[in-house]
Design goal:
This protein is of the alpha+beta class. It is built from 8 helices and 16 strands.
Length: 360
């Protein structure tokens, strides 16, 4: 994680060069200058910081449906979208006094309370999350108006004790935080839907009077024996009232169908080999309902193939996330939301719905 004040580093190095410049500069002077430069760089890059226990808030923002996007868009377009995502989110983090811990593929991790502390770090993180979703929604609207691919993100916010400092070796180290608070943020982020901000119980308790949230969700996550509670952030009251923009997924025509489909679960961004066959009963632009032989927990990510008949050329995969699963007859009626918009599979769904409705 790098310090953002480049001018401070440049001024320090220029000052050292002026001190040691000249043909008569001695080796001892050069050695002392090198030592001072190393110290400056350590401060600038936050390297060589002692590891301490502290309390912080971790924010994770991740592009939803990124795997499907990478399979359907040219590399150059994906790079443009990633740069747009970081250009939209990173300035918001800085504006609220957070530190950008790292960029990880299609996600960004930010810290509030480490290394710099403020009395209202949690409130800053929550307001940052809301404004990030608002900025992403505005960028999506601009992309749609220009006929370009759009992206949406899921965000998680987790507050608690962490170990903060420089981790690594003599060859490479970096400032970051580790601990269960970070792990919980990562687990919650994987459950977030497009446009959502999910909070841990500790984040809720620390800012209950400053926010509006939805009902409690208790989910059993991998690696933990007990269910985890998290809450959907709907609005903040501090430092100014802001609502999380609603990404409407049901505002589209929905048609009744009876289509055979094959479903495979996705875990840790890997598509499982085990398949289950179900029947899709209704479909719209942004989601579908299907009758499945097993109950899938809410937030399970799946890959769907609708051209699953023997001898029929496979259609592009569709990525979706389970919203709910209810017992129905000999199976389970499962509602799903598509996690990637604008992919070949999603476009094919939209064209199919349009053709059934309007005959074109």
């Amino acid at each position: 994680m790098q310090h953002q004040d480049r001018e401070q580093l440049i001024s320090g190095i220029l000052g050292l060069i002026r001190e040691v410049s000249g043909p008569l500069a001695e080796q001892d002077s050069l050695h002392r200058a090198r030592t001072r430069i190393d110290a400056l760089l350590d401060d600038f890059l936050l390297e060589s910081q002692p590891i301490v226990a502290t309390r912080a808030t971790v924010l994770l923002a991740d592009i939803r449906g990124f795997t499907a996007l990478t399979q359907s868009l040219p590399v150059a377009t994906m790079i443009e979208l990633l740069n747009e995502f970081f250009s939209v989110t990173c300035p918001v983090i800085k504006r609220y006094g957070g530190s950008i811990d790292k960029l990880m593929g299609d996600s960004v991790m930010a810290l509030f309370g480490a290394p710099d502390r403020h009395e209202d770090d949690l409130a800053r993180a929550l307001a940052c999350a809301v404004e990030m979703q608002r900025s992403i929604a505005e960028q999506a609207a601009r992309n749609q108006a220009a006929g370009r691919p759009t992206f949406y993100a899921g965000i998680s916010v987790s507050t608690g004790d962490v170990m903060a400092g420089s981790f690594g070796s003599a060859d490479h180290n970096e400032y970051t935080v580790i601990g269960e608070t970070v792990n919980l943020a990562a687990r919650m982020e994987s459950f977030s839907l497009r446009g959502q901000v999910l909070l841990s119980e500790a984040s809720l308790e620390g800012a209950r009077e400053l926010i509006d949230v939805g009902e409690e969700n208790r989910v059993l996550v991998k690696g933990l024996s007990a269910p985890v509670s998290f809450y959907e952030l709907r609005a903040v009251k501090y430092p100014r009232p802001m609502q999380v923009p609603k990404v409407e997924m049901r505002r589209s025509p929905r048609i009744a169908v009876d289509l055979r489909a094959v479903f495979r679960q996705v875990e840790a961004e890997r598509i499982g080999s085990e398949q289950m066959t179900g029947r899709v009963s209704d479909v719209g632009y942004y989601g579908m309902s299907a009758h499945l032989p097993v109950s899938l927990p809410a937030y399970t990510e799946v890959v769907i193939n609708l051209s699953a008949e023997p001898g029929v050329e496979p259609a592009p995969d569709i990525y979706a996330r389970v919203l709910r699963s209810r017992s129905s007859g000999r199976g389970f009626r499962t509602s799903m939301e598509f996690t990637a918009i604008g992919t070949p599979g999603h476009r094919q769904i939209k064209e199919y719905v349009d053709s059934m409705l309007w005959g074109h």
